[in-house]
Design a protein that fits this description.
The structure holds 2 protein chains of 2 kinds. In chain A, about 35% of the residues lie in helices and about 20% in strands. By secondary structure, chain A is of the alpha/beta class. By secondary structure, chain B is mainly beta. Chain B has one domain. In chain B, the strands form 2 sheets. A 6-stranded mixed beta sheet of chain B has the order 1-10-9-6-7-8, covered by helices on one side. The model of chain B has no long low-confidence stretch (mean pLDDT about 95). Classes of the chains: A alpha/beta, B mainly beta. Bound molecules: zinc ion (ZN). The site of zinc ion has 8 residues of chain B, from loops.
């Protein structure tokens, strides 16, 4: 099986861009990734487009604008896990020997307000007002607080940390420091989650260029990072979101031949602050029930033993659904290269993990290694 | 509750979705669930196939809405059509027969809600639509 390298990464800033189409922002990220790798457009054998609500064949529209004629274009929709899923799929094309170079572009332009209207229109859940994303995380938060004594302050620290990181990221949507008090006293969305504990809806795009390590020569091979293993999972019968994230993470670790003790940097799905605390546990960074204490003790801050979401995460960088999993890999790669500027973690990580989780029990995890 | 039942009979109120609940002879409410005829797995709301053993032989069952709160949240910003209705309390309830049901909690102060507290089913008006009340199955403290 071929070894896959991430050879190039690129981003368009995250935010609100009413004057730009999804095609405009996706193209900016794609061009940046191809130029970053120093490869030619003719070498690209397939393009994967990750998006959730941009309409039919949105990936083909982006490919058209890039002049990528004639190659297969595959659109990937896996809710918030779309981006990670698209990279996972693109990597399998290279591993299988179908293509030598794959471009993955994740993009989204989103309306304002909470993500609702999930599931089937007219269903019990829809008509009863149950299908609203923050409330699903509100349930998780209340349960974790009840079972393990996790506190509102510990959850607020996730927002404080990630906003602090986002200030240092020129691509982040909200580059503003927030305090614990500001987080806790911001407007309540789904008790105990306040507004500053919920990621924004955003416009944005990110791209990565994957290559077959043995057939493609790079102008600057030292900047490339291994795509060491990945997995995509769906919830088991009678399980929950934590189960699927844990199982998917360990499948990715096995594919990459690592253990949780090897992880030096994480970009995870902090759509809501409780999510990040749960993901510490699911990804094996700390024992079950100790996620709240883990952030309080400083382990996941920029200078901690396992920095989590140095990009600012979904909380601060923003969360254009189709972009997120791709933007996470952008962050992991620039950190591993030592090119992250003001937010560079002290020791350039050797092993990094990216994790996304989405509606209806989907999860996707990738492992990068240098 | 008897007023709601009368409104449903007279057409002044409508059920939120068909078959979500039934009112039995003694006037109490039951939830319209499914039971697998092969492995006896029960669930709510209704399904067409068993999610546990994949059997297509699934029958209707009326579930007694009685159990304990597994988790809860207070929704302050809901779907657009719920803008005038917030805040509302959602609970995930573990029924005595093992089925998990998510619905609204009524007649309880937010400060009094506890995971593990006992609740029972009731009917409540959720919102108004086309001049009629929309009624759904909710929980209240037991
Ligand atoms: Zn069955």
């Amino acid at each position: 099986m071929a070894n896959v390298l991430v050879a190039g990464v690129g981003m368009h800033p995250t935010g609100r861009f009413p004057d730009k189409s999804y095609r405009d922002i996706a193209a900016v990220a794609a061009v940046a990734a191809v130029e970053d790798a120093g490869l030619s457009w003719e070498q690209i054998g397939v393009m994967f487009a990750s998006h959730t609500r941009q309409g039919i064949s949105a990936g083909q529209q982006v490919a058209h604008d890039l002049g990528l004629a004639g190659i297969p274009v595959v659109n990937v929709e896996n809710a918030c896990a779309s981006g990670t899923t698209a990279i996972h799929e693109a990597a399998t094309w290279i591993e299988a020997g179908r293509v030598d170079v794959a471009l993955v572009v994740g993009f989204e332009k989103m309306p304002k307000g909470v993500i609702s209207g999930l599931g089937e229109a007219g269903s019990y859940e829809d008509r009863m007002g149950l299908n609203v994303m923050p409330s699903l995380y509100g349930f998780m938060a209340q349960k974790h607080m009840h079972r393990y004594g996790t506190t509102a302050r510990q959850m607020a620290l996730v927002s404080v940390k990630n906003h602090q990181n986002g200030v240092l990221n020129p691509y982040a949507q909200y580059r503003k420091v927030v305090t614990v008090e500001e987080v806790l006293h911001s407007r309540m969305v789904a008790d105990p989650l306040t507004l500053l504990q919920c990621c924004p809806t955003s416009d944005g795009a990110a791209a990565v260029l994957l290559i077959n390590e043995s057939t493609v020569s790079l102008p600057n091979p030292r900047r490339a990072v291994w795509w060491a293993g990945s997995a995509v999972g769906t919830m088991c019968f009678d399980s929950d979101e934590s189960e699927v994230s844990r199982r998917t993470a360990y499948a990715a670790y096995e594919a990459a031949a690592i253990g949780p003790e090897d992880i030096e940097l994480v970009e995870c799905h902090d759509a809501f602050t409780i999510g990040e605390i749960l993901h510490y546990e699911e990804l094996g960074l700390c024992p079950e029930g100790e996620g709240g204490r883990f952030i309080e003790e400083g382990h996941t801050w920029l200078n901690g033993k396992v920095p989590v979401n140095p990009s600012g995460g979904l909380q601060s960088r923003g969360h254009p659904l189709g972009m997120t999993g791709v933007a996470q890999v952008y962050e992991a790669v620039v950190q591993m290269r030592g090119e992250a500027g003001d937010r560079q973690v002290p020791h350039w990580p050797k092993t990094a993990v990216t994790h996304t989780q989405g509606y209806a029990g989907v999860s996707a995890v990738g492992v990068l290694h240098r | 509750m008897s007023e709601i039942v009368q409104d449903l009979r007279d057409g002044r109120a409508i059920p939120v979705v068909p078959n979500a609940f039934e009112i039995v002879a003694d006037g109490s409410v039951r939830l319209g669930g499914s039971e697998c005829q092969k492995c006896q797995w029960r669930t709510f709301p209704r399904v067409k196939r068993c999610l546990r053993c994949h059997s297509g032989d699934v029958g209707d069952v009326l579930l007694i809405p009685q159990g304990i709160v597994d988790s809860f949240t207070v929704v302050h910003q809901g779907p657009a059509e719920w803008t005038g209705v917030v805040p509302y309390v959602l609970v995930r309830v573990l029924l005595d027969d093992g089925v998990l049901v998510v619905s609204h909690l009524r007649e309880c102060l937010v400060s009094d809600i506890r995971i593990g507290m006992g609740v029972r089913g009731a009917l409540a008006v959720l919102f108004e639509e086309g001049g009629r009340s929309v009624v759904g199955p909710v929980f209240v403290p037991a």
